[in-house]
Amino acid sequence: MKKLIDVKGLCVDYVTFDGRVRAVDDVSFHINQGEILGLAGESGCGKSTVAFSLMRLHRPPALISEGQILFDGQDVLTMEEEELRSYRWKGASMVFQSAMNCLNPLKTIEYQFWDIFEAHDIVSNREESIEKAKELLNIVDIPSERLFDYPHQFSGGMRQRVVIAMALALNPKLLVMDEPTTALDVVVQREILQKIHELKERFGFSILFITHDLSLMVEFCDRIGIMYSGKLVELAPSKEILQKPNHPYTQGLGNSFPTLIGELQEMKGIPGSPLDLNNIPQGCRFAPRCSYVQDKCRQIEPQAEQLASNRWSTCHFHLNALVNSEESAQRNKPEPEYVIQLADVEG
Ligand SMILES: Nc1ncnc2c1ncn2[C@@H]1O[C@H](COP(=O)(O)OP(=O)(O)O)[C@@H](O)[C@H]1O
Ligand SMILES: [Mg+2]
Q1: Mean pLDDT, residues 7-23
Q2: What's the confidence (pLDDT) of residue 322?
Q3: Ligand 1 atom index nearest CA of 274
Q4: Residue 274's pLDDT is what?
Q5: Residue 283 and residue 267 in contact, taking contact as beta carbons nearer than 8 Å
Q6: Lowest mean pLDDT segment, chosen from 70-74, 93-97, 143-147, 338-342
Q7: Does the keyword Transport apply (predicted)?
Q8: How far apart are CA 70 and CA 82, in angstroms?
C-alpha cells in the first residue's frame, strides 16, 4: 500500500507569555492511500493541533518546531504560498466541528461554491460552477435545487453535508475531519459518516478522522492512533486496538466506554486527570495514572516501538505482546499476575 501522508517526529509548541507548551511531542504516523486513520484521546491531548498542522492551518501561538510532513513525497512544511494553496484543497481539505457555522450567512450556497471554484481556477464561467456545485450537492444527498438557498435554510446536518461537499470540491486525496459530526445528533451523525464512507470508496481518498466517540471510531476507521498528553502512545488496526491493547492508557479508554457486542462489562474510568503540559513529569507521562506502573516508568521516558508490521506502542511494557507471548502462554498465569510478570520482564 502506498503512503499518502507521512508524519515524522512532529513537535508543535504553543508559545505564550507564560512560556512554551509542547502540545504535540514527537508524533509519527502515516496514512495509506484510501485508508481511514482515527485519532483518539482525551480533550486537550493534541488531536486538533495535529490536524491543523497537517493542513498547515495552525496559527500563532502554535509553532511547528520539529518534524517533517511528507504528502505524496512533497514536503508540506517547506511549501511556498502558491503550492500551499493548491495543497489545501486539491491535496488535503479539512472539515471541522463547527465548520457548518463557518458558511457565510449572507451568501447563497451557490455563491460559496463559486467562490471556491473561481479562486482555484476550476471553472471558466458561472454556469459551469453551478453544474459542478449541483453534482457535489447530489453526492451528499442534497437536492440540487437547494443550491440557491442560504445557510440558515438548512438543518445543522444538511449544513455539515454542504461543508463536506465543499471539502470534496477539488477532489482532494486526503480529507481531515476533526470532530465533524460532534455537534449533530447520533442519527444524523451516522448518516453522514456512512455517506463519507461511501464517497471514500467511490473516489479513493484517505481520511484522518478525529472524534471522542471511540465506538464510532472503531466502526469507521481502518487503524487508530491513541494520543495522551501530546504523545502518540499506541497505533494499531481498529479491529485489534481495544481487544488487544498494548498501552495501559488504551486499555483504560477501552474500559471506559460500553461495547455493543460481547459480554456485559463493568465500565471503569481512568483514575486521575490529564497531565498539565506546563508540568511534565520525568519518565512516562501516563505513569501517575497507570495501574501497571514500575520504577522504570517514573524515570525513563518510553519511546515508540514497533511491535508488529502495523502496531506501535510507547510503553516500556506491552500488555498484549506479553500476554500473547509463548512464554506467558506456557506460564498460563491469570491476569492479576500482570504486574509481577512485568517486573520479571524488566529485571
Ligand atoms: N491557542 C492556544 N494557546 C495555548 N495553548 C493551546 C492553544 N490551543 C491549544 N493549546 C494547548 O494544546 C493542547 C492540545 O490542544 P488541542 O490540540 O486542541 O487538543 P484536542 O484537540 O485533543 O482537544 C491543549 O491542552 C493546550 O494546552
Ligand atoms: Mg480538538
Answers
A1: 95
A2: 54
A3: 25
A4: 87
A5: no
A6: 338-342
A7: yes
A8: 17
Give 47 Cα–ligand 2 centroid separation in angstroms.
6
| Ligand 1 atom closest to the CA of 43, numbered from 1 | 23
φ, ψ for residue 309, nearest 5 deg = -60, -30
Look at residue 264 in the predicted model and tell me its pLDDT: 67
**Helical spans, DSSP H, in 87-185:** 109-119, 126-139, 156-167
Is the beta carbon of 46 within 6 A of some atom in ligand 1?
yes
**Ligand 1 center to residue 179 CA distance, Å?**
15
Ligand 1 atom with the shortest distance to the CA of 24? 14
Q: What is the mean pLDDT of residues 158-171?
A: 95
Residue ranges of domains in the chain: 3-224, 230-261+284-346
| Range with lowest mean pLDDT among 23-32, 108-117, 181-190, 242-251 | 181-190
Answer yes or no: is the C-beta of 14 below 6 A from any ligand 1 atom.
Answer: yes
What is the rounded CA–CA span in Å between residue 102 and residue 162? 11
The pLDDT tens digits of the residues spanning 283-307 come to 999 999 999 999 999 999 999 999 9
Per-residue exposure over 161-176, b if at least 16 CB sit within 10 Å of its own CB, e if not = bbbbbbbbbbebbbbb
Residue located via cell numbers 449533530:
184
Q: Supply the pLDDT for residue 321.
A: 63
Which atom of ligand 1 is nearest to 50's Cα?
Answer: 17
Q: Which CATH number fits domain 3-224: 3.10.450.50, 3.40.50.300, 3.40.50.720, 3.40.50.1100?
A: 3.40.50.300
Query: From the CB of 278, is ligand 1 less than 6 Å away?
Result: no
Q: Is the CB of 40 under 6 A from ligand 1?
A: no
Handedness of CA 324, 282, 211, 108 (dihedral sign): negative
Q: Any idea of the CA torsion for 87, 124, 195, 41, to the nearest 10 degrees?
A: 20
Comparing 15-24, 67-76, 152-161, 267-276, the range with the smallest average pLDDT is 267-276
Distance from Cα 23 to the centre of ligand 1, integer Å: 6
Q: Compute, in angstroms, the gap from residue 83 CA to the centroid of ligand 2.
A: 26
CA of 341 to the centre of ligand 1 (A): 37
Å from CA of 224 to ligand 1 middle: 20
